[in-house]
Amino acid sequence: MAETAHDQGPTAASGPADSFDTERALATLRSLCVPDMAGRAPGSAGHDRATRFLVSELTGSGLSPVLEHFAISGVLRLSAPPYCRADGPAGVRDLVHRAEFAEHPRSATMPAPVSGVASAEPGPGRWAIVRGPSQGPDFAELADELTARGVVGILVAQHADASGYLTKRVQGPPPVQLPVVALLPELLDAVTDAAVTAHVPLERAPAVGANIIATLPGRAPDARPILLSAHYDGVGSDPELHFPCAGDNASGAAVLCETARVLSRAEPLGRPLIFALLDAEEMGTLGSGHHARQLSEAQVRPDVLNIDMAGKFNGKVAVELGPADPPPDGLIAALDAAGRHLGIPLHAAPVASDNRRYAASGFPSAGVGLGAAHYHSPLDSPERIEPDALRRAGQLTLATIRHLAAHG
Fold this sequence. Notes:
With 408 residues, the protein is an alpha/beta fold. The protein is 29% helix and 24% strand. The strands form 2 sheets. It has an 8-stranded mixed β-sheet with strand order 1-10-12-11-13-16-14-15, sandwiched between helices. An 8-stranded mixed β-sheet has the order 3-2-9-5-6-7-8-4. It comes from Streptomyces microflavus (Streptomyces lipmanii).
């Protein structure tokens, strides 16, 4: 998609776009990010509170949301604060969780502390230092070999992200046979030949996901619907550290809720509008996969607009198109018309989110992303959300929907 200019598009996308209340959206976002929501990981009490809160938000807009449940085989979570200690020639050092060490998604369970000397030469009773890749089948084979050699665990390297934290993950492939702990790459040298004791109680807990679905009828009830989606789950908080998950993706959920409020109070659109607050995006887009299957089985083929990360405006909006109807009536035309009228530049770029599940089902789809100051980090907080980014995302969403409803 080429960047839009600042001229008028095929329609003057006014009206609902001008009614987007940024302060209301910010209030919704802040509510989703409080410590009681605990990072909104599926299977947690905080996630359930977030679900109930969002149902009440849509109900307050006059909608009748329903919950669409699906099974999740396992969510990675820490059952207690982890620790990792190195006792070497320079003395005893307690490493800082998430800043210097972290759980690894391939790790076996670690019900009790594990101790041993860290060494690049694997041997009985030692932690094996592994500097190569720690994913894929090769790593599983290596873990099997190290198990046969009698090592007690594996130490691997993980780089910190731009926030200075080791990324938190809530999904992963099947565990290997040994405990695995990730350290900053430079710390692998520092702990070599030191006695390392670690307790990283990583669990894989089954959960039930919950998509929140609400429909706003249109003037032509049999017309093809428009689907607006955003995921509301997050990566969950650590036992000792809160992850607000503001940009990713309380921001998108807040845009959806405010869009629902505006459109539910406006004149009915020409086409039905489905609002989908999706669960388990962080688990591999499980919620949108479930919803796409439900729609396909019902032989419903909507135009899909998915919002993921609307917390920071970097000068232009990323748009990833899936299957799309050609101009003048499809998503491309609607987004271009809205962007041109509002003076919001759009550019083609990857948006790796729920839009891809809908695209894989053959639905006309577009993923829209502005950005976030931080990602899967404790710093992804409401204080770092740009109100202007929320405003632009909301206005673009409303104008795009309006164009689709009038021309699709």
